[in-house]
Design a protein that fits this description.
The chain is mainly alpha-helical. Among the domains are: 4-52, no CATH class; 376-509, no CATH class; 517-597, Serine Threonine Protein Phosphatase 5, Tetratricopeptide repeat; 631-784, 3-Layer(aba) Sandwich (Glutaredoxin). It is built from 36 helices and 10 strands. An 8-stranded mixed sheet has the order 1-10-9-4-5-6-2-3. A hairpin with a 4-residue loop joins strand 2 and strand 3 (645-647). Helix 17 (285-306) runs antiparallel to helix 18 (316-330) and helix 22 (396-412) runs parallel beside helix 24 (453-498). The radius of gyration is 30 Å and the shape is globular. It starts with a helix and ends with a helix. Pfam families: AhpC-TSA. Residues 1-26 form the signal peptide. It comes from Rubinisphaera italica.
Length: 785
């Protein structure tokens, strides 16, 4: 961590360096920028210069976010927002950024706005756009608005109204939400009163009315505002906002927008996803799956093409986990498993994707457990629970869930001994917590006599505080014990079922949390309560309309109850939902003999007919791949300090780490090498080589090696003085023309499996080593599958 003093000095230099801001954004050469920087920093210490390597010249706000140039990708929405610029390309990037913003693609929206600013540094609205893309990050939004305010003198009256409105919003007290939201509403209305033809003001107002909705918000008024937009531009991105408006109230009112939303902005994954909200709420799961699969494919294509790590897109994991839920509903079991596994396979990163965060790792694990349990794939669950997909974890709640599911799978396969082992592990955890409660109670009874009255009073207050903390700690432990008791009880219920004691199993399972209602009804039926069990199944179906799993279980149970007429009726209902069912999955495979007796072919599914109200849909394969896969690393040829040639080709078949090193003058880079060098042997033992690509010239490269310490630097250094390799790997700030820090994990096939690019180097060697082991071990499981 930087000391406060160092941070202050760095900030001071950033302020001094601001004079070069415009020239840098305009795209002047790095050497000229650094020359100006040197003049401005005269008198400052070398330490501060080193700390600035990789950091923006313009302050912390510009450190974060995308720092590589945008391109005009097309398909980002029909928006028209004229801004004060003489460069038509700037206008194109601004419109693209606004379309991306309307599609909640904030990461790419900021990139487009920053690119527009690099082409026209005087255009105030480009900074307004970057602030809009960061409204949920108040400090960054304020920083961008400061730049917009500085350029108000070159903005027109309409633009100034937009700038003033957003500036007041980001500066307002966030605790006074109603006051702040009302002020922003009125400011947008003022723009419309003066510029009634401004469609984008109407769209922003409609969006704000939805985001800030209260009990007094008129949905019909917002709907009327949106209709005004569609009368002028029927394919406007505001169809997105209309879906949000009616999503949780009257989803059927947004069906027309659901048919058009993705088509308005086909390059934006979230715009394909949003109609899935409406179709899901209306139990039209096949249509919901189509939309969410389209979203997944567009996201995958973008991330693989532009080498953006998956969870850097904030709503990516949300779409994919919902897609898996809906795949479960329509019986596309293999694809549900495939996508859940793919989510777990994605690279993890401490900032945005770990098991503790709501990213791909967390969601993928949840959904993989869900689909395996729902469709009785017990052997697969056991295999995956003993792999890196559903591996043991230090996250307590997740590990308890794993033990519960693993115990269920063992009992269902008749492996009572291993099932009991999971109960024993849960009980061991419980006993450890019981001992902890006793220890905490003993601590609470310890009292120390005060030497005098004042000390006694102070001690009494401290003791009271300590007692409250102790009680709180005990309550937390007791809550964990209660959860473990409940889990043990459930597993004992599954054990009873596995032993054929259905009555005891049912009594232990009923009323428990997270016991599948359909499974519970099956156990009840096996226990002899057939009428009540069938009622429970029908009740579950009524609350899970158009889901194939509960209906399939009802068909089978009615058949086994010798109610063949009722079974046939339920089977006909199931066939209406059957186009995409995987017939080889146990739940559906058991229906094969029943279908034969009813006179149907072995493939008893019906063909899918597209609904007539979903708009024109492209071929899904044209949008992108179903799974995310890593992208190829750029090839390179460089030389070391002795001018010996080194290249990416020498790593063919060899997984390796590539560190992008900002030269011997970069303090943080030196610290990174100091962190990685002692771990080289551990990486090598894991099958990983390591190399560092430096900005240094060959003479300076030798200086970096000599400066390491008395021992030889175990990481080879090569020179990329031209920065061509930095640029090829996108470890480069295109807006300020300076190299960035980068760390890459590349497999033996030359594919980038993990990366970190930013203004500071990645320092967590243990995380990267563990992540490399996790990623490469998945290939063994995939080969076995």
């Amino acid at each position: 961590m930087l000391s406060n003093a160092i941070r202050f000095l760095r900030s001071l230099v950033c302020l001094l360096a601001f004079g070069i801001f415009v020239s840098n954004l305009a795209g002047e050469e790095t050497t000229a920028a650094k020359s100006s920087q040197t003049e401005l920093q005269e008198g400052q210490s070398d330490e501060v210069d080193k700390i600035l390597e990789g950091h923006s010249f313009h302050g912390d706000v510009f450190n974060e976010g995308p720092r590589q140039q945008a391109y005009l990708m097309g398909g980002t929405g029909r928006v028209r927002f004229p801004v004060s610029t003489e460069n038509p390309v700037v206008q194109s990037f601004f419109d693209q950024g606004l379309g991306q913003l309307f599609g909640f693609w904030y990461f790419e929206a900021e990139r487009s706005f920053r690119h527009a600013a690099s082409l026209d540094p005087d255009c105030a609205m480009t900074y307004w756009g970057a602030a809009m893309a960061n409204r949920k990050n108040a400090e960054r939004a304020k920083g961008f608005m400061e730049e917009a305010i500085k350029r108000k003198g070159k903005a027109n009256e309409r633009e100034i109204m937009y700038i003033n409105a957003l500036d007041a919003y980001v500066k307002a007290d966030s605790k006074e939400k109603e006051k702040r939201n009302d002020a922003f509403t009125k400011a947008l209305e003022d723009i419309l009163l003066k510029h009634p033809e401004d469609l984008e003001a109407k769209a922003l107002l409609a969006l704000h009315l939805w985001e800030s909705k209260s009990s007094s918000t008129s949905y019909l008024a917002a709907e009327a505002l949106l209709q005004e937009i569609f009368e002028v531009e029927p394919m406007h991105s505001a169809h997105h906002f209309r879906i949000h408006l009616w999503d949780k109230r009257h989803p059927e009112r947004a069906l027309s927008s659901a048919a058009l939303c993705g088509q308005t902005s086909p390059s934006i994954a979230h715009m394909w996803h949003m109609p899935g909200h409406i179709y899901s709420k209306l139990h039209r799961y096949e249509d919901a799956v189509w939309q969410q699969e389209a979203s997944a494919r567009v996201d995958h294509a973008h991330m693989m093409r532009d080498r953006v790590m998956p969870d850097e897109i904030h709503n990516f994991a949300h779409n994919n986990e919902w897609l898996i839920r809906n795949l479960i509903h329509i019986g596309r079991v293999h694809d549900a498993i495939d996508l859940a596994r793919n989510m777990i396979e994605l690279p993890r990163h401490p900032r945005y994707n770990t098991l503790a965060k709501k990213g791909s790792t967390n969601f993928g694990r949840q959904r993989l457990f869900q689909v395996l349990r729902t469709y009785e794939l017990w052997d697969d669950m056991i295999t995956l629970a003993n792999s890196t997909y559903l591996e043991p974890t230090d996250k307590e709640d997740e590990q308890i869930k794993r033990l519960r599911y693993l115990g269920l799978a063992y009992f269902q396969t008749g492996d009572i001994q291993n099932g009991q082992a999971q109960i024993a592990e849960l009980d061991r955890r419980k006993q450890a917590l019981v001992s902890q409660v006793t220890t905490e109670a003993e601590k609470q009874t310890v009292q120390t006599e005060a030497a005098d009255e004042d000390k006694a009073k102070t001690q009494e207050a401290d003791q009271d505080k300590a007692e409250k903390l102790a009680v709180k700690a005990q309550d937390e432990i007791k809550a964990k014990i209660k959860k473990l008791d409940a889990t043990i009880k459930v597993l004992k219920g599954h054990e009873a079922v596995g032993n054929g004691d259905y009555r005891s199993g049912y009594e232990l399972l009923k009323g428990a949390d997270d016991v599948d209602a359909v499974y519970l009804a099956k156990v009840q039926w096996l226990a002899g309560d057939q009428e009540d069990a069938l009622k429970a199944m029908r009740k579950n179906i009524s609350s899970h309309k158009n889901e194939v799993y509960p209906l399939a279980i009802l068909v089978e149970t009615l058949w086994l109850s010798n109610r063949k007429k009722d079974s046939r009726t339920a089977f006909e209902e199931l066939r209406k939902l059957s186009p995409q069912i995987d017939l080889d999955v146990p739940v559906f495979a058991r229906l094969g003999p029943i279908a034969t007796e009813f006179g149907y072919d072995s493939d008893w599914r019906v063909k899918s007919l597209p609904a007539g109200d979903v708009g024109e849909r492209p071929d899904l394969n044209s949008l992108g791949p179903f799974r995310w896969r890593p992208s190829a690393a750029p090839s390179w040829v460089l030389s070391d300090s002795e001018r010996n040639p080194r290249s990416s080709a020498e790593f063919s078949g060899q997984p390796h780490i590539v560190i992008f090193y900002l030269g011997f003058g970069c303090l943080h880079c030196a610290e990174q090498l100091q962190a990685f060098a002692p771990k080289v042997k551990e990486f090598e033992d894991a099958g990983l080589s390591m190399i560092a690509i430096s900005t240094d010239s060959h003479p300076k490269l030798k200086q970096s090696i000599d400066n390491y310490n008395e021992e030889q630097l175990p990481i080879p250094l090569v020179s990329d003085e031209s920065l061509n390799v930095f640029k090829a790997f996108r470890v480069y700030d295109d807006f300020e023309n300076q190299p960035l820090h980068g760390t890459f994990l590349i497999d033996g096939n030359g594919m980038v499996r993990w990366q970190d690019i930013g203004y500071e180097p990645f320092m967590d060697t243990t995380f990267l080593l563990n992540e490399a082991n996790r990623l490469f071990s998945q290939e063994d499981v995939a080969d076995e599958s």
